Amino acid sequence: MRQSNGYVILFTTIMTVVVGGLLSFTSQFLAPAQKKSIELDTKTQILGAVQELKEGDDILAMYKDRINSLTVDFEGNVVTTNAKGGAMVAEEVNILKNYKKAPKDRVYPVFMYMNEQDTTKIDAYILPLYGAGLWDKIWGFAAMDNNLETIVGVAFDHKAETPGLGARIKDADVRDRYVGKKIYNESGELMSVSMVKGEGNEGLTDHQVDGMSGATLTGKGVNAMMMQYLESYQAYFKKVKAGAAI
Amino acid sequence: MSTETLEQPIKKDSEALFSKRRKRIVSDPLNDDNPITVQVLGICSALAITIKMEPTLIMSIAVIFVIVFSNLIISLLRNLIPGRVRIIVQLAVVATLVTLVSEILKAYNYEMYKVLGAFVGLIITNCIVMGRLEAFAMGNKPYDSVLDGLGSGLGYSWIILAVAFFRELFGSGSLFDVKIYDWIASMTGFQLQTNGMMVDSIGAFMVLGIIIWVQRSKTGYVEH
What pTM was computed for the model? Predict the structure, then answer.
């Protein structure tokens, strides 16, 4: 009986229903907790670009206090509706999905870090970045001062860069190198900030930082990512500088 | 080989909870019949995730969980599973458990999920899990199968933890992300250099090879 076709079909049918049911139940049951983890992770990274975070900080409360967000398109216009017709929420923009589109078709979230005392004053603009490292994708956030000229902090993360080499983009000593660097030259041209080959370089300009020895290709990925995203935000930067109320 | 005696179902009803035979089910895979070093299974994951201690520990716990519960479930169902589709049934059980682990990590330890995401999925293809289901759980009682799963899981875990210990120490100069080399430098003023080869898969092969060598020179095990 255990070998008959009928029994095999019956057994596999029951198994499929039980397994499928269990998995969809788990997925439904855990969805809120997963959404929360992802939200916490994103907000930790955004805040991490402008300030050092400590273990036990209430990230969500800090985020609520200090960050205002909006979303713009390639021309620098504010986007208020998402693709499904609902309200656009900058935190929910999937940077990876947008990265796969052409730059002019993407939407670009902007996170504004507000002054602690005067909550109408913007201290920094935090922009998401996305690109390709040596082995897999890399991403991060760059924080610009309120003149949109100087970098006040960056946060990088990666999927599979080599530990001890390219994976160092996550480390504070590498990230700190970007602080105070300028993204424009004297004639106002966008230069971005790029990693050069090797460490301990002398005579670095305002647009250069030390690279990571042994991880030149990851550095190139970071440079390309910075340049591409800073370029894409130029229209928005111009509008802000012209005094547009956004 | 000791596996051959293990894999015969032994009919004895009133056996002590931790009889000699049952202790052997757990202890054999730790050394004499280790899934990695003797049976040479699960090498893939032993190379991929052992760069640092912390993900290795999480992976160990995940594998033990999956192997114990899949052994239990398959053993409970062993008289119901049709022989012709047994591999598919085993695969479905393992895949379900792995998906559960992955979903739970995603919900409650997102950091780890980001590090291990792809590898947790690959527990499905870890030959140790399927190997134990096919070789043991299909023919033994549930409690024995749980012990067998526990033994194999622990045997797998201690090896990958040992490999990760050396790889993280020599490759990154740290253990569980505590920077040992920097601490030594601050104490003695002597900065040790990390070895880049250890963060590569090559390092894992070498450490694993040395562990196998030491173990076999002690147990006298020879491959036939």
Answer: 0.74
Contacts of B91 in chain A (CB under 8 A): none
* ipTM of the complex in this document: 0.71
Q: How many CA atoms are closer than 13 Å to the CA of B112, on its beta-carbon side?
A: 20
Minimum distance, in Å, between the CA of residue A230 and any CA atom of chain B: 26
Please report residues of B whose CB lies closer than 8 A to that of A140. Answer: none
For residue A1, tell me if it sits in a domain.
no
**CA-based nearest distance B27→chain A, Å:** 32
Strand ranges in chain A using DSSP code E only, listed in sequence order: 67-73, 107-114, 122-132, 137-145, 151-158, 194-195, 208-209
Check residues B14 and A178 and name the one with the higher pLDDT.
A178
C-alpha B138/C-alpha B17 separation (Å) is 21
A window 80-99, beta carbon within 8 A of B? none
Question: What's the domain count of chain A?
Answer: 1
Task: Tell whether A34 lies on the interface with B, counting CB pairs under 8 A.
Answer: yes
Determine the residue type at A227: M
- Once rounded to an integer, what is the mean pLDDT over residues B95-99? 91
Eight-state DSSP code of residue A162: P
Q: Which of B105, B110, B168, B195 to mutate to test the interface with A (most CBs of A within 10 A)?
A: B110
Q: Which domain holds residue A197?
A: 48-241
B199 touches chain A (CB under 8 A): yes
Query: Is there a domain that residue A9 lies in?
Result: no
Nearest Cβ partner of A163 from B107, B113, B172?
Answer: B172
Measured distance CA(A178)–CA(A193) in Å, rounded: 8
pLDDT of residue B164: 92
Give the pLDDT confidence score for residue B1 in this predicted structure: 40
CB hemisphere CA count around B52 (13 angstroms): 17
